[in-house]
Amino acid sequence: VLLGGYVLHDEADHWWGNAKQRLEVDGACITWARFKREFLTKYFPADERNCKVIEFMELKQGSMTVS
């Protein structure tokens, strides 16, 4: 997670600073999976992800489809 935190800028950097303090309260190590879950929850909520999945599955080019 150390490397992931370094590439954040502006608002995301402030969010991560606060989230990191909150997550490290009990001294737990923040794993990549935990960082990813927190980040996606904040910046790419499940309902948006589901809409994008549906949008992707409905893509067409001529008579060809993704699904």
TrEMBL record:
Origin superkingdom: Eukaryota
Domain spans labelled Retrotransposon gag: 8-66
InterPro entries listed in its UniProt record: Retrotrans_gag_dom (IPR005162)
Species classification: Eukaryota, Viridiplantae, Streptophyta, Embryophyta, Tracheophyta
Name of this protein: Retrotransposon gag domain-containing protein
